[in-house]
């Protein structure tokens, strides 16, 4: 089996950039890597992503939102993640089940037990071996995210960025609570600095948490 790493954090924390940098390092060292994201990661789930992140769909109810995430995840796991792990590859995923607990559970204040049950159903037992939580103050993250959205020429995926600061504070607190409850799986990386500083912290945090072969490939 391969090794499954997820990247989590509030909007604009820098997780997507850090995932890309780790992917490049692993591939340069000869590792077979699949980089993917949620919601999305495959054609059917990408269509659900378009619905979930479009600010025009602000009328989506919290429960409908939760069920769409679960449906997208079920497709994604069976089509992309599980096959890659079976091939023995390293899978890097930008958001996974913890995002649903943080956003729909702590942010939307839906029942965490119900979310856990849906996550278990959607993943068919596939769980990350390691989760990198890139943490930064909400104000810093939102400023970065909104700046990125203004600069984009593609779809404006901003439905969550337009939520209140209080919502995002609940999400951040939810992530930190998840990390505190599962220290054997989570590593927390300070993402408030620039990209290079965050990458240095991430590599240091991962040095003893990756499989031996991967550590050797990175020179850790």
TrEMBL record:
<dbReference type="InterPro" id="IPR027417">
    <property type="entry name" value="P-loop_NTPase"/>
</dbReference>
<protein>
    <recommendedName>
        <fullName>Thymidylate kinase</fullName>
        <ecNumber>2.7.4.9</ecNumber>
    </recommendedName>
</protein>
<dbReference type="GO" id="GO:0004798">
    <property type="term" value="F:dTMP kinase activity"/>
</dbReference>
<keyword id="KW-0808">Transferase</keyword>
<dbReference type="GO" id="GO:0006227">
    <property type="term" value="P:dUDP biosynthetic process"/>
</dbReference>
<dbReference type="Pfam" id="PF02223">
    <property type="entry name" value="Thymidylate_kin"/>
</dbReference>
<dbReference type="GO" id="GO:0006235">
    <property type="term" value="P:dTTP biosynthetic process"/>
</dbReference>
<dbReference type="GO" id="GO:0006233">
    <property type="term" value="P:dTDP biosynthetic process"/>
</dbReference>
<dbReference type="InterPro" id="IPR039430">
    <property type="entry name" value="Thymidylate_kin-like_dom"/>
</dbReference>
<feature type="binding site">
    <location>
        <begin position="9"/>
        <end position="16"/>
    </location>
    <ligand>
        <name>ATP</name>
    </ligand>
</feature>
<dbReference type="GO" id="GO:0005829">
    <property type="term" value="C:cytosol"/>
</dbReference>
<keyword id="KW-0547">Nucleotide-binding</keyword>
<comment type="function">
    <text>Phosphorylation of dTMP to form dTDP in both de novo and salvage pathways of dTTP synthesis.</text>
</comment>
<dbReference type="GO" id="GO:0005524">
    <property type="term" value="F:ATP binding"/>
</dbReference>
<keyword id="KW-0545">Nucleotide biosynthesis</keyword>
<dbReference type="InterPro" id="IPR018094">
    <property type="entry name" value="Thymidylate_kinase"/>
</dbReference>
<feature type="domain" description="Thymidylate kinase-like">
    <location>
        <begin position="7"/>
        <end position="199"/>
    </location>
</feature>
<comment type="similarity">
    <text>Belongs to the thymidylate kinase family.</text>
</comment>
<keyword id="KW-0418">Kinase</keyword>
<keyword id="KW-0067">ATP-binding</keyword>
